[in-house]
Write a structure and sequence with these properties.
heterodimer; A: 313 residues; mainly alpha; MetI-like fold; 0% strand; B: 432 residues; alpha/beta; D-Maltodextrin-Binding Protein, domain 2; 8-stranded mixed β-sheet; two-stranded antiparallel ribbon; 19 helices; 14% strand
Chain lengths: 313, 432
């Protein structure tokens, strides 16, 4: 610490408009936005930039160990990996699309039902939101118990209905679908909530006019409610699809680090987690996450283009 | 007026800037100062019987010395994740950590994340490092450097239902073939009862498969460290392990780690359960176990090459290399692992101690299940590792676990073992 001489800008001001104050005056817009810019840089830009940086290295085990630049080697490794990477891409796509479609259809149906006023409506609305507020890991543990093949409730129910017992989460073929079911159970309420908000803003006149013209309930839904609700539906779809692609907690809680013994529930997020925290391969995990990010951007861009085209049509 | 408001604005700006500058300079002046008296330590570890016992001991230590020991406990995987995040950031916000030697000692010591404790453990003759079992001392030593103090030991044993075996007139199996026959006889899947429960999920099963592998005369690696999971012995061991679960195991076995498999046994739905002896307490708790009075313990059965269960150190305490309170950390470790406290932990919390003196004390072992003490005292033929020995243990476990999955699912074990051996060897070559 220097105590002998103060830097010039801390010295008493001799003349107006000198040094720091003038500089501050000139750049006042930057100065006042600086905290926000620094904040954004620290929390968003730095992690992404560091991930990009790592993805071109062979960093492993500890980021403080020496590592070398390997160019696109990590990316090449993943794109040529038909054992883990491409199946994970397929599972991520399957999981996202299946869960999204079911959630949108179910969410829309329930939202339309809840739109009409009826006795006990508020209780039903609260009840339906309960899965949404539950902690995902706790939800995973709960379903793991319910779907336990020998002592779980699901198979007791199946047997009492005269149906064959299933392996559910434990089966190689059934695990991913069971997780889709859990995701639908947990996240359909959010879709309902968004769609209910959208429905409450719709004008009633077109619907009444169609009713006067003799349109039946299906026609009014198909040609009036649905087109008017489209922007809300699209918003719900985008929100849910991003969330579904990134799903981690439920899969981790029910299938563990490798997504099952045959990696049957290993999505891209799970694979990246395993590569970084399980295997300590930071470079290759970073490349995987960059690929994942690119997939998401491509899909979102496609969705946005489709949406704007839909608006014009 | 304009100039006045400008001046005010300038003053308003100058004050926080000067403050920020001063704060920055003060921060630079801080740091260092390790000679201060330590008033608190932080220990992080994975939940185990040992951490349960530690809660009382930490309070006692604070009363005696005035040093508060903050305890943070996690699940096994969560602990490893936490450690990797903190140590990659060179964090000094914890001083002591509990860890699984075979999982992380190689990797962490090479990363410079574990403090060298060789001088510490040899510094005090009264504390007596030599009282720790030789196999345990070996386990925490790598290339002549001691990286921790073992606080728990663990062996592979056979849990069985004494009542069912007696009723069916079956003697306690002493060989794997007898185990196979007994499991077959007691298996009754139509009534939801299974001959045997064991880990069947790819990664968790590796450690429990290891004793089968050794008892068949195989190992994961040979003396030179090369992969040997494609030997005839290894293939037979894989096939046998898979057969037990395929023919007499509960449905969905490939999704089971120890919590799931032990739950089946604890619910009274399986005749045998082979896993670590440190889980005995879960079957002795009436709140979660239906077999408190009927569970019994047997030594790991003999295979074609004899009975060679693993005997390992599942919990070790080491010091964070980035800690600023290493000496104080050692003082606590020394105290908590001394002869007296090791006996207390064994007696009160059934923590299988790594000290010979604990096991020689009948008063200390009194609370430990009777049949189990003999198994612990007789360590003949045991093997000191229960998983592949290399830095990339996690990847290796995925590889060598795969043939067992093939076996459980009735697939082609031989070709799966051949493929696993090739992949494992590639992984080993990559570390040379």
């Amino acid at each position: 610490m220097t105590t002998t001489s103060h830097p010039s800008y801390l010295a008493p001001k001799r003349r107006r408009g000198s040094g720091l104050t003038t500089w501050a005056d000139r750049h006042i817009k930057w100065l006042f936005t600086a905290p926000a810019i620094v904040f954004v840089a620290l929390l968003i830009i730095f992690p992404i930039a560091y991930t990009v940086f790592l993805s071109f290295t062979d960093s492993a085990s500890s980021v403080t160990r020496p590592f070398s630049f390997v160019g696109f080697e990590n990316y090449g490794k993943w794109l040529g990996d038909f054992e883990r990477f491409w199946p994970a891409v397929g599972r991520t796509a399957y999981f996202t699309i299946t869960a999204l479609v079911i959630e949108l259809v179910l969410g829309l149906a329930i939202a339309l039902l809840l739109r009409k006023t009826f006795r006990g409506q508020s209780i039903v609305r609260v009840f339906i939101l309960l899965p949404l507020v539950a902690t995902p890991v706790a939800v995973g543990m709960m379903w793991l118990l319910i779907f336990e093949p020998s002592i779980g409730f699901a198979n007791v129910l199946m047997k009492s209905l005269g149906l064959p017992a299933q392996l559910w989460l434990s089966g190689t073929d059934t695990a991913l679908n069971t997780i889709v079911f859990i995701d639908v159970w947990q996240w359909t309420p959010m879709v309902i909530l968004i769609l209910l908000a959208g429905l409450s803003t719709l004008p009633e006149e077109p619907d009444e006019a169609a009713r006067v013209d003799g349109a039946n309930a299906w026609q009014r839904f198909r040609h009036i409610t649905l087109p008017l609700l489209m922007p809300t539906l699209a918003a719900a779809a985008i929100l849910r699809s991003i969330d579904a692609m990134k799903t981690f907690d439920i899969i981790y809680a029910t299938k563990g680090r490798t997504g099952g013994s045959n990696n049957e529930a290993e999505t891209l997020n799970m694979l990246a987690y395993n590569e970084s925290f399980g295997n300590s391969q930071y470079g290759s995990a970073a490349a995987l996450l960059m690929l994942f990010l690119m997939f998401i951007i491509i899909i979102l861009t496609a969705l946005t283009i489709l949406r704007s085209k839909g608006h014009r049509a | 007026m304009i100039t006045r408001s400008r001046r005010n604005r300038r003053a308003a700006l100058a004050a926080p800037l000067a403050l920020a500058l001063a704060a920055g300079l003060m921060a630079c002046a801080g740091g260092g100062g390790s000679s201060e008296k330590v008033t608190d330590l932080t220990l992080i570890a994975a939940n185990s019987p040992w951490t349960e016992g530690l809660k009382d001991l930490a309070t006692e230590y604070e009363d005696e010395t005035g040093v508060k020991v903050n305890l943070e406990f996690y699940g096994n995987e969560q602990l490893n994740d936490t450690l990797k995040v903190k140590l990659n950031a060179q964090s000094s916000d914890f001083d002591i950590y509990g860890y699984q030697v075979q999982d992380i000692m190689r990797e962490f010591s090479r990363n410079g994340w574990l403090a060298d404790m060789t001088d510490y453990v040899e510094s005090d003759a009264d504390w007596n490092w030599d009282d720790f079992q030789e196999s345990s001392r070996d386990a925490v030593t790598l290339d002549g450097v001691v990286y921790g103090v073992p606080v728990m030991t663990e062996r592979h044993i056979m849990y069985y239902r004494a009542d069912l075996l007696e009723a069916a007139g079956i003697p306690v199996p002493t060989t794997l073939d007898e185990l196979d026959a007994a499991a077959a006889k007691l298996n009754d899947p139509t009534n939801g009862f299974y001959g045997i429960a064991m880990r069947g999920a790819k990664v968790p099963l590796v450690t429990q498969f290891s004793s089968f592998l050794y008892s068949y005369g195989g190992d994961f690696q040979d003396e030179d460290g090369n992969a040997t999971v494609d030997t005839p012995e290894a293939k037979d061991a894989y096939a046998f392990y898979g057969k037990l679960l395929k023919d007499y195991g509960p449905p969905g076995a490939t999704n089971m780690g120890w919590p799931e498999a032990s739950a089946i046994f604890a619910q009274g739905n399986a005749a045998f359960y082979l896993d670590a002896d440190s889980q005995a307490y879960t079957f002795l708790d009436p709140a979660s176990s239906a077999v408190v009075d009927t569970v019994a313990y047997g030594a790991f059965p003999e295979g074609p090459a004899g009975s060679h269960p693993y005997s390992i150190v599942p919990q070790t305490v080491g010091i964070n290399e980035y800690s600023k309170k290493k000496d104080a950390a050692w003082e606590f470790i020394k105290w908590v692992t001394n002869e007296e406290n090791s006996k207390t932990l064994l007696a009160d919390d059934t923590v299988p101690s790594a000290r010979d003196s604990s096991w020689a004390d009948d008063a200390a072992t009194a609370s430990f299940p009777a049949g189990l003490v003999e198994i612990v005292r007789n360590s003949e033929g045991t093997v000191g590792h229960d998983r592949p020995q290399l830095e990339k243990v996690a990847q290796a476990r995925e590889i060598v676990g795969a043939p067992a999955i093939s076996a459980i699912e009735g697939g082609d074990v031989d070709s799966a073992a051949d493929k696993a051996n090739t992949d494992f060897q590639d992984l080993l070559d990559g570390e040379k």
